[in-house]
Structure formats: C-alpha cells, structure tokens
Design brief:
Largest sheet of chain B: 2 strands, antiparallel
Distance between the termini of chain B: 34 Å
Shape of chain A: globular
Shape of chain B: globular
Helix content of chain B: over 70%
Oligomer: heterodimer
Order of helices and strands of chain B: HEEHHHHHHHHHHHH
Number of domains of chain B: 2
Number of domains of chain A: 2
Distance between the termini of chain A: 35 Å
Strand content of chain B: under 5%
Number of helices of chain B: 13
Order of helices and strands of chain A: HHHHHH
Structural class of chain A: mainly alpha
Low-confidence stretches of chain A: 1-8
Mean pLDDT of chain A: 88
Number of strands of chain B: 2
Number of helices of chain A: 6
C-alpha cells in the first residue's frame, strides 16, 4: 500500500535480506497488534494463536516471493493472495487443516489494528491537505465511494437475476 | 526532535484498539434502514486524536516521524485481512465460477462513480476540470499516478484527484464499513451482489466492506469473503485498463456535456 521504497534487485544479497527482514519485522508488529485486538475482544483460545501463526507464515512466504521476483508490476498483496489461495485450495495436502486454522481468526478484530495504524500513519502533510480540500471535496468523495459501491452492486444484482443464479 | 520509538507506536495503537473495543458496535436504526458503526471506526478516530498533526502538543511525547513508521506497518497489517478473505476462495470456487459473468460485469460498476458524483461537482458546486480528477474513480494509488501522468501535476485534474485521494485516506475505509450494512438493511440487494461490490482493488476498503457485511450475515461469512476477495483481485488486474481506456475518455465527454448545461465557467472554483 504505502510502497515508497526503491526497487531492490535480488542481486544485492545484503539489501535484499535487509528488506525482507524489515518486512517480516513490520509483519510481526502487525500480527502482535492483531493478537492484542483479539484478546481485548475476548477471543483468546488456542485456535486464535494457531490461526495467527499460520497467517503470519503465509504472509512471510508471500513477502519473500514478492522480493525474489523482482518484476515489481504486481504488488506484495498479489503474492500473499496467491500463497493464501494455494495452501487453502481443496485437494492440496493439508489445506483443510490450514483453512481450519485460519478460520480460528475473526475478521473484525483483525481489521481494527489496521485502522489504528492507518490513523497514526497520517502525517501533518496529509492533515494539511485534508483541511485544504474543504467540504465540497468531502461531499464529492462520499458520492464517489457511494457511486462505485452502488454501481457495482446494481450491475451485479441485475446480472445475478438475469442468470437466475 | 528525537524519532518516535517503535514502542510508542505500538502502545498508541493498543490504546486506539481498546478505545474501539470499549465503545463497541453501535447500531442506529431508523425506519427502513440501519447504520452500523464498527469498533474500527472508533479506533480510527481515537488514533487520529493521538497524532501530533491533529493535537500538536503530543509532538513532545510522540517525537518525529511516527506517521512514516506507522504507515509502513499499515501495508503489513492489511495482509492478514486479505489472507482470511482469499482463504475462502478455494472452497467457494464453484460459486465464483457460477456467478462469474456477474463478477466480471460489476467491474464496470466503477462508472457509477462519475455518473453520480460528476453532476454534483459540475452543476451543484460549479467546479471546473477538477471534477474529472475528482470523480473518474475512487482515486487510489493507480488512478492518482495516471492522472498526474496524463494531465501533469499542476493541473485542475491533479488537484481534484489529490483531494479525493486524501479524503479517501481519511474516511474511505470507514465509509466502506458503513455503506454495506446500510444498503443491505434496505433488503433490495442479493447479499452476493453486495459482496462483489466490496472488491474495489483497494485491499483495506475491500476488507472493511467484507467484514461489515459478514457482521450482518454471519452465516455467509465465507461466501462473502470469497466473492469480495475474488472481485478485489479482478479489480486489481482490470482497474488501470478500465481507467485508461474507458473511464477517463468517458469522463472527458461527460464533463463537456455537463459543462454546457452549467454554462461557461461562471465562477472559477477556488478549492
């Protein structure tokens, strides 16, 4: 998302490892915050810990893949998604266990830390720009987001009923 | 000024999470519809109240550069959400294939963005070419880069796209937790259609939207996750092409016809 770092080719072993380590460290912090969020929500059975550990491994493998494959057209998110899909695909050995583990993690407490980090990530430049944008652009933005959601929902709904699905 | 130590960032995030959880899920019912505010909305607001850019005296405690460090963790924090969502694609692949045509068709729903927002910008707010940048898409990274590239950085189009980008950064994700339950409570739409509409190509908004929908229909969590994640992956691939070849050219035509109705720019918008 906030990928501002320069592209590091894999041919520089030290920087490559440093980059991966830094990604994994950020991922550890994010995972700890998510764990905390689960605890605060009252969810702390072993299923949660196993689930978070499995998710961490999937993210880590995705990051390493993203760094190894230096064509940076595809975002990290793509590689993490691919790994997540692969290890949970029906028929893949162990996929049922991986799915069960991931299902131990709840969506809502997983999302809360993201928003907390996002708020802290706003610097004075962003706050300044937001103030400058003014109420007209705020109203337009609401229409923009509402428009894209409703546009897709209406088309999808019509398509689904036409298909009789 | 010393740089922000990482433990302060973690501590602040934990406080924000607690604040969110303490306030909890708020449901406001009115007549035919319902507004749901999830804890993450309150966590976001609590987070905002703890940054020096909003509350300047905090700079002493927070130090310098907390924003940059925290925003790098945002990229890592969105990954687990995406893993949970994409993990349900495999088991729901039959449903995804079956609803495939709908899934593809709704990718063009992005056009609803300017259909709705551009008349407001041009006719109600009498904006100039800022309208094109502001309403052609939800103005995430790819769209922002394309507008800067096509029109140049010091153009009205760039001003428009930057403004909506910033607004999206501030409340886009929160809005994507409020809209879906609201629209779902109207009981007009198939829940699958709403799940598909969650996929915007922006991971945090997709995650927020799918989470909010699953809170409303817990039994369908897996299906909602699969459809949202599938739609999001497709948007990630198709968005830029749709923007370059369809949305922006159409926005130009749409803007010109709306500008005719508005008349020659009576007042140059000073935004």
């Amino acid at each position: 998302m906030s990928e501002t770092d320069t592209v590091l080719p894999a041919s520089q072993p030290i920087t490559f490892i440093q980059k991966v380590m830094s990604d994994l460290w950020l991922s550890v912090l994010a995972t700890l915050a998510i764990a905390f969020s689960h605890v605060i929500t009252g969810l702390y059975d072993t299923g949660v810990w196993i689930g978070l550990a499995v998710i961490y491994v999937i993210v880590a493998v995705g990051y390493v893949l993203a760094r190894l494959i230096t064509i940076r057209i595809l975002p990290d998110l793509f590689w993490v998604s691919i790994v997540a899909m692969l290890v949970t695909w029906p028929g893949v050995p162990g996929s049922a266990q991986v799915r069960d583990a991931i299902n131990g993690v709840s969506l809502l407490p997983t999302l809360t830390p993201l928003m907390a980090f996002a708020a802290l990530g706003l610097g004075s430049r962003e706050v300044q720009l937001f103030k400058q944008a003014g109420w007209k652009f705020i109203l337009i933005s609401v229409l923009v987001f509402f428009g894209t959601f409703m546009g897709s929902a209406i088309i999808a709904n019509i398509a689904l009923s036409l298909m009789g699905a | 000024m010393r740089p922000t130590p990482i433990w302060i960032i973690v501590l602040t995030v934990c406080i924000a999470i607690c604040a969110g959880q303490w306030i909890g899920i708020q449901r406001i019912e009115f007549g035919i519809a319902r507004i749901v505010l999830l804890p993450l909305v309150f966590a976001f607001i609590a987070g905002l109240l703890m940054i020096p850019a909003v509350v300047p005296p905090l700079r002493r405690i927070m130090g310098e550069g907390a924003g940059q460090r925290a925003s790098r963790i945002v990229g890592a924090a969105v990954m687990p959400v995406i893993v949970v969502l994409t993990a349900s694609i495999g088991t729901n692949i039959d449903e995804l294939v079956e609803t495939g045509p709908a899934l593809i068709a709704q990718e063009f729903g992005n056009l609803g963005t300017m259909l709705l927002a551009m008349p407001a910008a041009v006719l109600a707010f009498k904006m100039g070419r800022e309208s094109i940048g502001a309403t052609f898409s939800i103005a995430r990274e790819g769209g922002l880069a394309f507008i800067f590239d096509k029109y140049g950085p010091n153009t009205p189009e760039a001003t428009g796209v930057t403004a909506v980008y910033i607004c999206g950064t501030f409340f886009g994700t929160a809005l994507f937790t409020i809209m879906p339950p609201f629209v779902a409570s109207l009981e007009i739409f198939d829940i699958r259609a709403l799940a598909m509409a969650c996929g915007t190509g922006c991971a945090s908004m997709t995650g927020a939207c799918a989470t909010a929908l699953s809170e409303e229909v817990p039994a369908q969590t897996e299906l909602i996750g699969a459809l949202a994640a599938g739609s999001n992956l497709m948007s990630g691939v198709s968005n830029l092409f749709i923007i370059i070849f369809i949305t922006v050219p159409l926005a130009e035509i749409y803007y010109r016809s709306l500008a005719k109705i508005r008349g020659p720019q009576a007042e140059v918008s000073d935004v």
